[in-house]
Amino acid sequence: MIQRLITFVVILSTSLISAQKKTLTHADYDLWKNITDVKVSDKGKLIVSTIETNTKRGDGYIEIYNTQNKTKFKYPNGYNTSISSDENYVVFKKRPKYQLTRKEKKEEVKKENRTKDALFIYDVKNNTIYDSILRVKKYKMPKKQEGWLVVENFKKVKKRIGKKKNLSEQRNDSIDSNAPMAFKQNYALVYNLKTKQKDTIHQIKDFILPEKGKTFYYTLKNKKDKQKDIGVYEYNLTSGAKIAIDTTKYIYDKLAVYKDGNQFVYLSAVDSTAIDSLRFEMYYYKNNKLQELVNIPDKNLRENWELSKDQTPFFSDNGDRLYFYSKPKVVYSKDTTLLKDEIPQVDVWNWQDKLIQPEQKSKFEQLNKKAFLSYYNTKSNQYVHIQDHTIETLNFDKNKQQQYIIGATTSPYDIMRSWNYPWTKDYYVIDTNTGNKHLILRNKGRQPVLSPDGQYALHYDMKEKHWFSIDLPALKKTNLTKELDVAFYDEDDDHPSLPFPYGFGGFDSKGNALIYDKFDIWRVALSGKEKPINLTQNGRKNNVEYRTKMLDPEQKNKATYCNKELLITSFDKMTKASGLYTLRKGKLIEKIRPSGFRISSYKKAKNAEVYSYRKQNFTTFSDLYITTNTFQNSDRITAVNPHQKDFKWGTAELFSWKTYDGKKLEGIIYKPEDFDPSKQYPLITYFYEKRSDSYHDYHMPRPSASIVNPSYLVSNDYIMFVPDIVYDEGKPGASAYNCIVSGVEALEELGYIDRDNIGIQGQSWGGYQVAYLVTVTNKFKAAMAGAPVSNMTSAYGGIRWKSGLSRAFQYERTQSRLGKNLWDGFDLYIENSPLFGIPKIETPLLMMHNDNDGAVPYYQGIEMFMGMRRLQKPVWLLVYNEEAHNLKKVKNKQDLSIRMMQFFDYYLKGEPAPKWMTKGVPRIQKGKDLGYGLENTRASSIMPSSNE
Questions:
Q1: pTM of the prediction?
Q2: Rounded distance, CA 212 to CA 215, Å?
Q3: Which residue, among 897, 676, 679, 873, has the nearest Cα to 786 in the 3D structure?
């Protein structure tokens, strides 16, 4: 009796507290903000965070945190931040207020006259704004040089005489019609951070800054002749001198500078009456001398090749090589006697094409600009061509001068990519000193990784399921893992194709490779002469996944160390909790104890043991934490969404059950925070492959791109269930039923689920499974499917329009998991297609399928809709115009969120039906009446309309 009384008091207290909170509505999405960018200064003194409204319908801010004195500075609408190398200044752009921008758009203020971004400079020592500049387009600041930056400003706007001043006009940024031509173009300011002095460069076109040094380079544009440039120039920061390098050419483009500023290169073209016939040359500037490196025609290029105008040259790290691009000349046999409207518009599909026409269309710009790499040796004046048309891609570190690099080609296997997976390539070792190449890997699915010393490549062979090293000078392969009895491939992969490896964890401080099995990290010597060592040892025993971090953006393949100890993250497969360790003399030293959170987004100061990271769970937004004492303690330095406390939220818990065929699975249950186990709640089930590892994820209330939002659902007294799914080959539909419906029925046994009010929702692959399930079960009272495949026979022969790829490989080898082509597995395609089960459907279905869907053909949703309509099954189809697979535009996301929840509220809560469900939205009312209005009465069902 006493225990029952205590339970009653606790429930009552929770209910009273919750009753004081607000329920989330669709109008609340704009309140939530997200951290979109974090920068840590090289010495770790400053952490700069950019916080923006998640919907972009509102104002954000930046926060600057000083780790030394723990002071914080906040400024509204800041973004695009940079920290000076001496840590004395933070430079950022500031957007106009959202409501001002919205008002200007509504009043149709011309784009050039709208309020522009401003530039602000923050003084770190005095914790205050130091200076600002209006109407800024962009700015650049040297990476390693102190004291200056270059700002490009929009041209000054014209004065408006006798009329009301535009909202955007500023007194200091307006000119009269008689102003010099120079003020009628964008201009640049060379800004001295210490003195605030500015030097103006009028008629700016482009500029490039070296990492350090006392010079930079720029080009000017001629306003009178929009196609012609004025010239290319050097700016001397010591004297302020502007030195003309060349003013004789028609166009100057693709500026590149060596990191110390002493070498500069650009492309230029002589005058031409037709812009598309411009032929470019390359010029090299050093020690005040200009040298033409590639001209027209040029003996330094291959015969019948030309310089490419589409890629920017670049220097090697030591400056000895200037890399540039060229390509074979193409001559078209075009009939110039035909008028434009006499030229037929036709795509010619040929069965022997390497790439089908839609893929060629999707990659048109890439294919049209395809060029090949060479370099000019700035010391020996020699040219070396390291790539030809047989090598499609290169794998090398552009910041290093490596003798051996990897080249690859897909050409022998391009046709098979339409149905085969993984996609494979041939790999070559290229000696960059000579340009000679040797085939080292044939028909392989994983790209090799170059070692830091450039002598080896690390490669995972998907067929042999082992890691290999390749001695690049000797062209010798060595199996590094053949003696180990653990799998380095994904043991749980249920696709009918070769499994991928667990991954590569970077190279350690001695150049050894770090590779993963399912749980542990292994160290392997690339020479193969040392026995591999399991560094973490207890991962498999404790069901904990250990992984390294690679936090240096300039050395992306090097593992990160904390005080010379390897940094290692952990993820407990049972609790889903994250932790952090270092490896000290073979033992794991705990830095962050695993608890009920997911920890992610680590960043490290380049030259200090200062780290930032983010920490979250379902009830806790992923705010930013920092540590300056190697994780002895950490401080939370942001509080981005404090208003969450005013809203009803919920809880998340793990749930396990057995499928009908005995498999043990996991899922996540989301419950309202005032959950009462004696009540019965409507349930919405959402799923996509395996999601239980996301148990500690925070779900920001936001308008939906395609799926239901857990935070919104629990705040509105729904329970949400997210089950994991595993698949049997050839049976994706039956596998979904086996996992999802068994999970829902196991959940029903807990007693708090209203069995009569259960809904289901999924998008894409999840949308397919929703469409399939309603053909084989009446368990669900309402269903919503986003972008579902309804007919696998027609989808198999379809195209992924965004990429231009055939869809066949998906059905045979990847997500659809059928494992056979259409002809060998025809029964499987029919059996798993929702279209053929439409007569059995009794569940009302809402679909979204957009007319610019680049992943699942739009006609798949139409086939499902037209079939249900023909048989008079309740069905609705939302088609968002010019939208992709998942919605991009906030206005459409908001609309989907409203309609999807009106649909579920009607069927699962008995709320009034909206008019768009009962009467539709006629075309003539599109954009005028959205149909959100609710009917006056609650109907028990929406009956099919009679034919009149």
A1: 0.93
A2: 8
A3: 897
